[in-house]
Amino acid sequence: MTAFDHYAENQLAKVVRDIEPEGAYKTLAKAQRLEREGRSIIHLEIGEPDFQTPALVKQCGIKAIQADKTRYTPSAGITPLRESIARTASERLHQNLSAEQVVVGPGAKPLLFLPTLAIAQEGDEVIYPDPGFPTYEAMIRVAGATPVPIALDRDNGFNLPLEKLKQLITPRTRMIVINSPSNPTGGVLPQGQLEEIAKLAIENDCWVLSDEIYGQMVFDQRPHQSILSIESMKERTILVDGFSKSHAMTGWRLGYGIMPEYLARKVTLLMVHSIGCTAEFTQLAGLSALEACQQQTQAMCDAYQQRRDLVVARINQITGLQCRVPEGAFYAFPRITLEGRTSEQIADALLSEMGVALLPGTAFGSNGEGYLRICFANSLSNLNEAMDRMETWFQRQPCAV
Asked: What is the pTM assigned to this prediction?
């Protein structure tokens, strides 16, 4: 970086200077560079389904484009999609939700960012999980609020430690962010804990932002539990979900938020002045996914469970790693028992020496030190090969404990 670059960067707003990149994209770029050099790389770093978008969804999107569904739409989303989201969510959560509570956006990230901008400001505090999705800290900082990380409890399934949560809540606490199933840990919050979080939110008059983008990826026939299903939480919960993971539609960019109507109106205004609207053909494709592709979603979940079982069993045969069984999402989060190296050093070595691209736990916060994140949204053959390479690398290291 030149002297002018340093000068120019210092002229930017502090909130922008402080934003960190998302580790998955950084590692992906490095892995792709190695591939261009002729290296064999197995990608376990990026959180993306390896399945193709269902054929019905693709056909609907193509037909919509051919029918000239390519113009502006209402900023909150087209009515048929919002009505379908409200209807299916009402059935799933046993709540009476309306289309007026739904805001559709180009991906789930705007529905994380914009409600946070609408709720939190300078002087407020927002509690978020660490390790957790890096966008949480970024969106809190952009809103001008103070990020307050809470270390997840590995010995309790990476759940939020309730006693610690009680200690972190202050009169300045404006919102609590939860993510279940979790990226990166694969942890799932049980109903009893959701009820305790809801109780704390009500007692302290704060919001809960519930990131449920992996809500249709819960394993071992467990039902997905949402804090929005608790009746007393309807007026203080923002539920964020989307189509990227459940319907293999990452590149389509389609997500949504469900929230109280008055907040939905304000978030829609932020949509008007930032994004404008979401492509109509994408929304129509999403409508077909929601209405007709539940079997494909379940089939993907079943495949992920099979892959999870393989990866966890293989990891736990490697001296230097220990892995609990993730209950949802498509991530394993093994603990490193090899001494003398950081998680970033190990992740870098596995990529450069063995061609296995995965992420250090610190890509998800400082409390991720000592862990690796492995995305098992890949074929069984590739996963077996990746585990072989990892086992070989760990066998070359000094004895682990």
From this structure: 0.95
